[in-house]
Design a protein that fits this description.
Layout lengths: L3 E9 L8 E6 L2 E7 L4 E5 L13 E3 L2 E3 L6 E3 L17 E2 L1 E4 L2 E9 L1 H4 L5 H4 L2 E2 L4 E3 L4
Parallel strand pairs: 10-11
Antiparallel strand pairs: 1-10, 2-3, 2-12, 3-4, 4-8, 5-6, 6-7, 9-10
Length: about 140
Amino acid sequence: MNRHKTWIRIAHCRDIPLRDGRAVRIGNREIAIFNLGDRFLAIQNRCPHRNGPLADGIVSGATVVCPLHAWKFNLETGAGENAPSRASCVQTFATCIEDGVVLLEFPVVPAEEEFSSGCLEVKSELNSSQSAELIEGV
């Protein structure tokens, strides 16, 4: 399977308050975008422990604390800092700012390949005709 990545426009920088997170849906995946003041960082939005919404967590330095059970994740590496095992981590995504807009680097599956594989991972990635949407109240 030929996998590519693309930059997706997510939100205006002003729409994500300082030291806060916002959930974004891209295809079937939820990504949490955090404003650290000097940069924006992105991780998968669901805690591997109990699916807590990490975008709603408390940001401290370059970490976020899950609002359900206080697991702490490094926003730069995705590592679970107080989780019981190294398997307790979340995926990270590269971000950049262009003309006051946060962009996220995301894997793209060409539309013709989307249904050619039975892999669940393929179905959760963006196809070339989908886009991002901010999730309100998540």
